[in-house]
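Re: weekly structure request thread

Next one in the queue (312 aa):
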Amino acid sequence: MAAGFVETGEYRRFRDFCDACRDNRYIGLCHGPPGVGKTLSARYYANWDEVEAFNVARDYPPESETLLNGQVVFYTTKVTNTPKSILTDIQRWRARLQSLSVAAREVYLLMEPLLEDAHQRRLKETEAFLKVCNVRVSGFGFRDAPKSEPTLEQVLRKEQEHRAEISDPTRLVLVDEADRLKIQSLEQVREIFDEGGIGLVLIGMPGIEKRLARYPQLYSRVGFVHQFRPLKRDDVLDLLRDQWRPEGLLLPKNALTDDDGLASIIRITGGNFRLLHRLLTQVSRVLELNGLPVATPDVVEAARESLVIGVD
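Done, posted below.
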């Protein structure tokens, strides 16, 4: 799962919203201002860091339960997109989930010994054939060489048949940066939803619901709308008091124990997760440069001056 991710109350609301879209096979709209954690939450919900990092050539078959039971595709809309590219990309990721499913792993474990046995028999039979013919060449595949059954080709064909029978496990597609979708691309996404029997969540900026309302064929299929809000004051306070830190950031153990300093952090960031990350990075820098152990209001204000975060 995503390193350093904390399941806040806002994330749990988003998770319940995605569950509803998945279980009821609805289209859902999720909107919120930049930096509140929409993308991070969607990737975490889909376990996408693990899906992307999995190396099929090196790590197959998967052992992770989250990989074996994956049902959610996370897709980021490209700046330049076409209906064809969207269809191709989403199909590719759905095929990845299919190849990592429990059924695919069972096929692999069943067929791998048979494939290895057929391969080794092929090598021995070809080698014996070459000796009988007293021929020295490199490579294999002589048509006249004897082949015991099941042959390698027969086993490969059987494996392909088993894999073709594996159903697509995808039950939900999360489309991030959905504001980038033009009308033709939106129609392609709607077609994927209509034909796939799956849920769909479009994630974008505030106002996306008003824009999509102009396309009744798509908007009529929307079942849920979710507003992704900034973190509440208590959520931020709990994060900081529980020693949460952005990944890779080093802070003194008791750096965030000053109540006034914490209040300044909460006031400046306004619950915006991205600003919180950036502000804490600058706080760490100010503490290190000045040899200070605790983030007081003066330290937080000095860190704030180096950020472009607007005015109070």
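Residues 283 and 303 are 5 Å apart (CA to CA). The longest helix spans residues 102-133.
Next request, please.
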